[in-house]
Amino acid sequence: MHPPPSPPPDWTARDAGWCLRTNRWCERGPVFALFACVSRLGDGVFWYLLMAGLILTDGWEGLRASAHLAATGVVALTLYKGLKRWTRRPRPCAADTRIRAWVAPLDEFSFPSGHTLHAVAFSGVAIWHQPALTWWLLPFATAVAASRVILGLHYPSDVLAAIAIGGLLATISILLGPAVAMALGLA
Question: Is residue 153 domain-resident?
């Protein structure tokens, strides 16, 4: 006789478990300092500096790339805010008292990670314009994504969904960007 089949895995519990395990890493000062800094830069500072740098180094082409990044950012912001209002998933630090928010969240809800969505979308578009930036942007975007879980602000599934959404948004933006630029007389 075979034992009864095991119930399907509880993904919510696994999600919270990963969050709890990585959240404890911040008890080590250097880990907290690194990911708090990355998270703060991911608030927008890094991306604004990137756009300014593109303009300074590439002139009109840099301005076009920066406008493309800004337009992608507006769509990303609208998309992630709408998804947060629709899903209303509590942050891990609000749902589990064992998970500490090591930095203050920018808003109330968890799904999807706006930092990650923007990091992936911006990185994709910027790399399309300047492939040499790959070596800087991929590690930074990865660190932003990791920081959100480690700092107790997001579940891993929030971050994975944001990676998928950000990647899709970057792809659509890259495919539509030239047509939109031409329609606006910018190409």
Answer: yes
